[in-house]
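Hey,

The postdoc asked me to send both predictions to you directly instead of through the lab channel. I've kept everything plain text so nothing gets mangled by the mail client. Protein one:
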Amino acid sequence: MSRSLGLQLLLAVVIIVISVYGLVTKDFTFLPVTFTLLGLTFVLIGVKEWRKANKSAMSIESFGTACFLFLVVALSFFP
C-alpha cells in the first residue's frame, strides 16, 4: 500500500467518523473541519492522478473541488 493511499484512507475514516458524530448528535460545529479534511483528500486524489496521467481531467476536477471546499471553509470562518 502506498503512502498516499494510506493517508487517503485515514482521512476518509476520520471524515466518516466526524460526519456520523455530527448526524447522530445533531452537532454540526465540526463541519468546517470535515470540509477541510475532504479538501485535503481531493488534493491527494488530484496529485495522484496528476502523477499517473499527465494533467488528466480527473486531477483538474479534483483540484477544483478542493479549491471550492477551501473557499467554503474560509467563508464560514470569515463571513
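Protein two:
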Amino acid sequence: MVGLSNLTHVTKFVSITSNSSLTNLNGLNNLKTVDGYFKIASNGNLTSLTGLSSLTTVGDYFQLYNNAQLASVTTLTN
C-alpha cells in the first residue's frame, strides 16, 4: 500500500477486495477516520490487519469477510 502513508481521513468509503498479493495493510498506518463504509473482502493471502491500528472511526459499516488466511482481528482495538 505504498503511497498511502499520509492518508488520515477518507470522506467516502474504502474497499479493499480481491487482491491475492496483499498480505497486510501496512501503509494505512495513519488512517484514523472513514466517513462511509470500510470493506475488506476476498483477499486470499491477507494474514494481518497490521496497518489499521490508528483507525478509530468508521461512519457507516465495517465489513470483513472471505479473507481465508486472516486468523486474528486484534489490531482493531480502537
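Summary for protein two, as requested: The chain is about 0% helix and 25% strand.

Thanks,
C.
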